[in-house]
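Researcher: Re-running this chain for the archive, since the previous output was lost when a drive failed. Same request as before.
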Amino acid sequence: MTPRIATILCALTLATLCAAQPTVTQRTFTVHDGLAANMVSGMAQDSHGLMWIATWNGLCCYDGQQFTTFRGGPRGSDNALSSNRITMIQPDSRDNIWVRTYDGGLYLLDTHACQFVNVGRIVEQRYGKQPLPRNFYAMPSGHTWITDEHGDLNLRVDDAHPTDIDHIEVLGKMGKPIQGNVIHKVEADSKGREWIVTDRSTTCYDKKAPTHIVHATAARQHDATKLDRLLTRCDISRDDIDKHYIDRQGNLWYSTAKGLTLATFREQPFHLLPLREEQPTRSVVCRHNGTIWAGTADGYVAIYKGHTLTGWLAPAGHISPRPVRFSDRIFTLYEDVEETLWIGTKGQGLYTVDRQGRVHHYKANGANRYAISHDYIYDINDDGSGRLWIATYGGGLNMIDKQGDGTVRFIHNGNDLKGYPEKDFQRVRRITHNRQGTVLLSTTSGLVTFSPDSKRSTDIPFYTTCSKQADSTSLLSSDVMQTLASSKGTVYVTTMGGGIQQMDDKHLLDNNLRLSYLPILNREAINALWLAEDDKGHIWIGRENGIECYHPDSRQLQQFSTNSMPAGIELTEAKPATDGKGLLWAGTVGGILTFKSDDIELSNYRPGIVFTSVQYQGENTTHPLLYGGTLTIHPNRRNLTISFATLDYGDNSLIQYAYRIKESSKEWNYIGCHASIAFNQLSPGKHTLVVKSTNADGVWIDNETELTLDVTPRLWERTWVQLLLLAIAITLLIWAVLTWMNHRQRNREREKRLESIMRQYRELQESIATRQEEDTTDKLHQALHKYTLEEPKIVDEDEEMMNRLMQFIEQRISDETLKIDEMAEALNMGRTALFSKMKSLVGMSPSDFLRQVRMQRAQQLLARSKMSISEVAYSIGYTDPKYFTKCFKKDTGMTPSEYRAKN
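Model: Regenerated structure tokens:
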């Protein structure tokens, strides 16, 4: 085979492979994926979109993430099944699931209680026989028909009361008569009328009496065209499958002996043009003649016309039909207005190829002042006025200066570009400009802006913007990957590890430009490799895990994971090429990814959300929780995790979630792709959990779903208990206040009583000092006899006791060995009785009373005698004058000397 023929065949093959064909993704589920059994006997989808699968080992539901299996409980329990081998299922209008077991049992799965109900037994209790289900038919009227194999007990069940025998209508031999023995089919027409097809006729159901239709005697044949078409796309025949089901999303479910297979179908807008296997495509350019040129990391330049590979650029400048290496690593391609191709390499400098195929090579040369500054060329672009600029990774910025003789000079900061920063901005990745002609440089040290309008390169001022840790309006990272100036004037900046930001300043010729963070473009912490704009103003973002399309007007973000692209796609940092008509070309490892933005539309499928399970802290099992409604939470189960799912059975890897508690917040909490929420110590009462999600394209949709969390309060959290405790607290507070007031009143009475006693005692001492010739004991008796207690009054026994006590103290006041026991003995009382009596009369203990009497005597002696302080101390029973001084100061606040000086 000649090389020319081989090339033509290769091109035809590539064109065929790249044609727009729907992609089919198939996934087979087995017991290893959570399916109850590999043998599947039926499939159905309820109104929420949840898929139900009948197996030989229980009933499963699948939410797009995991299987939940329902089996019967132990024999004799309310949840028992006669057999876990399910042969047929059908959801009703309220999403409860009708079940027929292998032995003909009729059951209903109450999806709100997650329990099976034996409906066959309920019918048997009324009619003495259980029906043998033949088929189930759910009607839009809110009823379900259950036909009987023998025609005896055909049931029409009210879905609102499926377990109430009074809401179950029986037709057939044991009930209301019908035209025929066996019902083959029940179907509703566009008007909601229910048609019964029997072995003899077709009748229209009427609650009073079925209407006989003579001219319709056979059921309509099932249209298998759609199934056959889907099976053909799956490369499988009808004979190879046991059961099948087409869901509302258009997915095909079919069962074989190996398990359950899900086939999803999606139009493929992305096409892969193979190039150099396992070699990154680092540069792509769309030329004026409509051809696409791509450079690889191993030095090849390929040429495409449409999706067809037409040749390779040879080192001599001609087009070769066979792969030929042009140079070392090709990092950038650019075509100027003269249709000259500029080729930047990493290590071999710069090449140009003109329209005649002449090749010129430029490399760094220390001997030539106007040679290019570095051999690592990362980008080539113009400034809008036709002047070309070169981004080098190590030599900063170079300007192309074409001379009259056709030679080229490179102007950089090593010669005439004096204003360019010399140190930190030498590694330049990308060059772009806005509509005003301002040029933006993306470097590893920050953003550089300048206007090339100056007549002399030496006069061009440059401005820098870097990351500042304490400034939230600065670059999030100084390592800038790319800057995009959109057609509407908005400037987007993507940095390594910092995400995507938007320029807030409209005037770009300034230092430290202000930027703002765009949360919608930074949902995941994955670096953006490149930015591009299509002809409609949409911003395309290439990431390591897929491609995104941002709609600035609606602020919606459409996402495409690598799962929705040809297998094995891995994007590179190559700057995409556009033709201005909606076509984009992006570099990948091993080829080029091309797509037309007009072919990519926002998905109109709005999947619903269902709550699937709840798991309480401390338990290793989950409890099924289907749909919404109310979840009652017991007081000891307030730490829990609630799981949910968006019912999209295609590629759901990009679906994201948000939630809020309706009663406490209007703000949404965005939780990414995590389809569960953990709650800790929920407060008592009712909380409404609201969850929403995106669709498979990452666009937020109106599919909010609510779940009421009814948290049962503990005993002390109940209102009546709290009111009771409040009443008790108020009562205790009132009692405490009254007790305190009563105690304060008694203290005041004691203070008055003590003050009266001490006043009489002072009068006695004064009398002694002036009339020493009189009998001290008689005087004391007279003084005490004069003593009267105001409120309450001391009874005679107390007055007598106080008289005797005062006489005893007066006699022994100078005795330092005087003890309380001796005072009690002198009064013929016990120590404890004396203590209690003194407390009740004067509010102090006997020892405190003795100290008070001694301090009163000391005050009188200090004020009216010339005795020394030591003598005063000895005279009142203190053996240590220093200790007496300390006690006196504690009692009066003054030392004995200070007291004497003051009085």
